[in-house]
Amino acid sequence: MFQYTDQTYEEVDFSQADQRDGELLGCTFVKCLFRGTHLEEVTTKGCSFIECDFTGAMFNASIHTGSAFTNCQFQEANLFVAKFDECKMVGSDFTKAQLDGITIRGGDWSYTNLRYANLSKQDLRGIRLIEADLYECNLEKTDLRSSDLTRAQMAKVKLQGADLRGALLDGIDFKALDIKGARLDITQAVLLARSFGAKVE
């Protein structure tokens, strides 16, 4: 097991490297490559990854606390049973990433590309998903209470059994949503009715 503390790396290529079971504390990585890198069981705390490329990387069982992955590429990365606790993921792309068993606790996932992701039965309370691309995501039985979904792309999202009470849904195209079986609060129900032309008094 290795440990890096308060280190800064810029445009370093870690591709295909074996970095599993390590600990990164307060480190900064700028435009670094981690393509196909083994990061299983890695722990990060308070780290910043800026415009890094994790295409095909293995994050299985990794734990990230208070770290930031901004504008990073996670295409086809394996995040099986990875945990992200209060992390900032703004602008990152998860196209074809393996997200089964992932745990997300709070944090800011605004402007992320999560198209087609399976996030069913997740506890996503209080998470920020402003303008996130959630096209055709599976959010069945997901707890989204008090989350911020302002202007998120939610066409064809599966919401059966999801709990949206207290979530911010400003700018959402309700006509593109299938909310059958989802739990809404009164304010959201009024927004929904008005989107279909009803006059609510």
Which key terms come to mind for this protein?
about 200 residues; Pectate Lyase C-like; 2 domains; six-stranded parallel beta sheet; 1 helix; elongated
Short structural summary:
The longest helix has 10 residues.
Structural class by sheet pairing and helices: mainly beta
Within the CATH hierarchy, at the fold level, what is the topology of the largest domain? Pectate Lyase C-like
> Could you name the ranges where pLDDT drops below 50 across 5 or more consecutive residues?
none
What separation lies between the terminal Cα atoms? 63 Å
Oligomer: single chain
Mean pLDDT comes to: 95
Named CATH architecture of the largest domain = 3 Solenoid
Radius of gyration: 18 Å
Measured by DSSP, the beta-strand proportion falls in 5-15%
CATH evolutionary superfamily of the largest domain? E3 ubiquitin-protein ligase SopA
Domain module tally: 2
What can you see in these coordinates?
With 201 residues, the protein is mostly beta strands. The protein has 2 domains: 108 residues, Pectate Lyase C-like; 74 residues, Pectate Lyase C-like, CATH 2.160.20. It has 1 helix and 10 strands. The strands form 2 sheets. Strands 1-3-5-7-9-10 form a 6-stranded parallel sheet, with no helix packed on it. The chain is elongated, with a radius of gyration of 18 Å. The N and C termini lie far apart (63 Å).
